[in-house]
Prior knowledge:
The complex is a heterodimer. Chain A is mostly helical.
Amino acid sequence: MTGVISGSGQWAYVAAAYGITVLLTGAVLWSSWRAMVSAERRSDALRKDRR
Amino acid sequence: MHAYANPTRFLAIARPLTPWLLGAGLLLVLAGAWAGLTQVPGDYKQGETARILYIHVPAAWLGMGGWTSLALAGLIQLVWRHPLSGIAARAIAVPGMLFTALCLATGSIWGKPTWGTWWEWDGRMTSMLVLLFLYAGFIALTNGDAGGGGGQRQGGSLSRGAAIYALVGAINIPIINRSVVWWNSLHQGPSITLRGSSIDNALLWPLGLTLLGFSLLFGAIVLMRMRRIIADNRVSARLRRLADDEGN
C-alpha cells in the first residue's frame, strides 16, 4: 500500500512541497538580505556625513 | 551574556557570522534535499510522499522553536531589560512564521495523497494554525506603529504588552507537542523522541542534514533582521540628534 494516491502521481506532491519551500524561504532570505544591506548602507552614509 | 547585550559588541560577532551561517545552511539544505529525493528509498507504506518529511519536520521544529526563543527573549526583556532581547524577538517572528506556514503547507500537501484530505480540524493541525496566527498577531503588534508606539519602544525593544503576549503564546507550544498523544488524530504519533526514533536509519539520515541546514538558515535570517533593526535605530537616533542640533 502506498497511500491514497500511489505510483508516479505522488512525485507531483513531493515537487509541490519542495517548490513552495524553495519559493517562500528564498523570498524571506532575499528580502531580509536586501533590507539589511540597504539599512546598513543608510546608517554608514549618515555616519560619514556627520564626520 | 550581559556583555553581548551591547549592540556594538553584538555586531562585531554578527557581521562575520551571517555569511557563514547562510552559506553552510544553504549547502546542508541542498545536500539533505538531494539525499532525501534521490539517495533513500520510498517508505513501504506512504511511498514517495514520505520524502516530504525532510522539509516538513524541520519546518515544524523551527516554527515551535522560534516561538520558544521569542518567548524567552520576551522574558529576558521583561526581567533584565537587555537592549538586544526585544530586537531578537522581533527578528525571530518573521522566520518563525515562515517555517510555521511551511509546516502547514507541506503537511497539507503530504495529507492529500496519504490521508485523502488536505486538512482536518484535529489537535495537531489546529494548534499549529493557532501558532501561525500568534506569529501574525505578534508581527502586527510590534510593527503596528513604526514611530515607536504600539508593541515596540524606542530603540527597537518590545513594549511590556508585546513581551507578555509572547510569554502567554508559549502555552501553545506544549499543546502542539502533546496534541497527538492527548487527542485522536489523523496525524501520526511522535516518531522522534529523546528515547529514539521509530523511523529506520535508512530513511532518517538526510533529516539530520536538512534539520541542521534549516536551523542555520533560521539563524542567518534572525541575524540579518537584527542587523537591519539596529541600523534603522541608529539612523533614527542620528536624525533626531541632527534635528536637535538644528533646533538649538
